[in-house]
Amino acid sequence: MQHVKIPQDRIGVLIGEGGETMREIEAEAEVRLDIDSENGSVAVETVGDPVLGLKGPEIVRAIGRGFAPEDALRLLENDMMLFDVVDIDAASRNKTDMKRKKGRLIGEGGRTRELMEELTGADVVIYGSTLGVIGAPQEVDVVRSAAEMLLDGAPHGAVYSFLEEKHNEMKHKGMEYHRFPGGQS
């Protein structure tokens, strides 16, 4: 059994209307959730497939970091799906600096965050003092790198170019992989 602490304002999202979301997570990840809505503590107990059960705490953590339940459940799509968090607060000198850096990650009208999602295929959420990412390992790495570039003060244009370049690399690798259908060489 693992214990995960999530923010108070995310407990309702985790439970869902009439407990619907909680039941869906329990069924999909083969876990049992014991939610203490007083302090935000969630006990996650594996009741079925132990490999699926390992994703249970990650799903709860992802919802706690601002992801919609359906996005968090993407972690179950395959064994390679990852959830990662970039701590904006750790890269900031003070509250004002944190707000500024958070703004850089979001971008004007949310454009930077949207580009990270569009060009990598990962889900990206900025909540509180963190940036959360759900995706395949390469997608998560690219988003983390782009976020770190922005936090280090890189111009948005340079980060967009980096994202475009990585997008084209991933697309090219995907094409190469599927080049010979039907086993012909």
UniProtKB/TrEMBL annotation:
Name of this protein = RNA-processing protein
SUPFAM superfamilies found in the cross-reference section: Eukaryotic type KH-domain (KH-domain type I)
Say if the entry is tagged with keyword GTP-binding: no
Q: Which Pfam families match?
A: KH_1 (PF00013), KH_PNO1_2nd (PF22891)
Q: Which UniProt keywords apply?
A: RNA-binding
User: Which molecular function term from Gene Ontology is one that the record holds?
Assistant: RNA binding
K Homology domain boundaries = 1-81, 82-152
List the InterPro entries hit by this protein, alphabetically. KH_dom (IPR004087), KH_dom_type_1 (IPR004088), KH_dom_type_1_sf (IPR036612), KH_domain_protein_archaea (IPR019964), KH_PNO1_2nd (IPR055211)
KW RNA-binding (keyword) present: yes
Q: Which PROSITE patterns match?
A: KH_TYPE_1
- Reading the lineage from the top rank, the first entry is Archaea
